[in-house]
Amino acid sequence: MSEHVVVIGAVALGPKAACRYKRIRQDARVTLIDRDEIFSYGGCGIPYFVSGDVSEANQLRTTAFHMVRDEPFFNDIKGVEVLSSTEATKIDRENKQVHITNLKTGEKSVLDYDQLVIGTGATPRKLGLPGEELENVFYVGNMHDAEKIKEGITKGQYGKAVVVGAGFIGLEMAEAFSDMWGIETTVVEIFDQILPRMCSPVLAKMGQKHMEEEGVSFKLGQTVSRIEGDGKVERVITSDGEVEADIVIISAGVIPNDKLARECGLECSERGGIMVDETMRTTDPLIFSGGDCAIIKNAVDGSPLFLPMGSMANRQGRVIGGNLAGRKETFPAAAGSWCVKIFERAMSGTGMSLGAAKQAGFDAISVMLIMADRAHFYPEKDMMTLEMVVDKATRRVLGIQGISAGGDALVGRINAVAAIMKYQPTIEDVSNLEVAYSPPFASAMDVLNAIANMADNAINGMNHGHGPDIFAEYWDNRESGEYCFLDVREKADAEPFLEKYPEHWHNIPQGEIPKRYEELPKDKKLVLVCNTGGRSYEAQIMLDALGFEEVHNTQGGMAVIKAYGVDI
């Protein structure tokens, strides 16, 4: 008798596991169950369907060969039986059975299994707000929500939108409303930055400023108390007032669907999610799990990691499919790599941000660099801002994040570091990381190599300074007389600031410092500035050697100061 594998959940992980297993074991029977009638789709593409970049909803369900992944596709092409609109209600591990209910007819039945896969995904986090039931309040949890949102947009029903949550989906939905459709959009976030815990407040502020320039408004550090309207949403009440709205998107994270696993006695995390080992097995050797309902290992510190991403689910599904067939495949610990497009910028990262690293117990610092993403003399280039997080004692690279107009170039750099995170790379590993070089694509000393060198200099005490946030604090307190702002660029670059702030802004080009350093006060903090932080670093080295004790280099220079939004 052939083996029967049952797979619960058919969005990302489930279909990949089922099809991989069936390719290896053509003689086996595979049954794929999903409670929805629409399954096997790219959920991460929903914001781009809403924006219009993806014109038809079915495009999120098609293969690269334009075949719709529906029941006939899986039955005829993949040899996998699909039970859509069917809910798995119970797992009986003792008898190796799954209890199911047909949601259209109400008919109940039982499926026997030899091995089982749980790929039940995650559910949008409900906030329990008064007014959540109003028309035009959405969670963007499935294709049905996406189609309703798009229908309302194309009918011109929405003039003002409120997005609750400034994570990936929240920012992507805000861009979709504002950019393509011109809908007045406000993002409300309980934390005081966008992409909380994913990147530093500095990078977050740079991303926020760019989105504000494109017309999106933000209310950070605020909570939503209720949603009001007469049948349809009309306004959102926040801790700081109210915002008019014709549509509300609640994007406050997701909760892993682990109910079936818990009820049948599989080990689950206290915070939610099914525990699996490196083979993606649960605590029952005949049951596998992965995707948005599973907990894996963090490559940085070994802690449990919940990483609900379609890319993870697909790779894990392939591993599960192989192991169902008797192979011994493993899925490595993950660093949590991410990227998000926000209008004309991209933000991306891997590993831990500085705040997350400190919270995890590391004695961490970060350095920030802005540099061209290809040879400085090449006519077409973008400036890339990177922030690297390192552990001072071990010199381990704990994470790297960035923002750039050159999205592909940025993601390429982040991916290069992401690929080695499971090996616990040190500063030297990135400093000497081999990257393909040609002036149209990179610098001879690539931006990745350069930021690792900068981290080395910082740990060795050679490069000591601050980012634009600390510069802003110093600048706001310039009347205190505690600071001397020294512009080390050529006089032509410094002239506008010398004229505007004659009492506070000073200029000695970096090359003239050995001859003119006596003009500088030794009883004040010297705050050094150049275009990108390179010349100010050289100036800082000179002044340190000349006996100045309070020399502070502004990492990223004027480029980052402006991108951060300092009013100067």
List its traits.
568 residues; alpha/beta; FAD/NAD(P)-binding domain; five-stranded parallel beta sheet; 29% helix; oxidoreductase activity; Pyridine nucleotide-disulphide oxidoreductase dimerisation region; flavoprotein; redox-active center
What does this 3D model show about the protein?
Belongs to the class-III pyridine nucleotide-disulfide oxidoreductase family. Pfam families: Pyr_redox_2, Pyr_redox_dim, Rhodanese. This is Pyridine nucleotide-disulphide oxidoreductase dimerisation region. One of its GO terms (molecular function) is oxidoreductase activity. The chain has 568 residues and is α/β, with parallel strands linked by helices. The protein has four domains: 4-121 and 280-324, FAD/NAD(P)-binding domain; 137-252, FAD/NAD(P)-binding domain; 338-459, FAD/NAD(P)-binding domain, CATH 3.50.50; 465-564, Rhodanese-like domain (Oxidized Rhodanese, domain 1), CATH 3.40.250.10. The strands form eight sheets. The chain has a five-stranded parallel beta sheet. It starts with a strand and ends with a helix. 46% of the residues are buried.
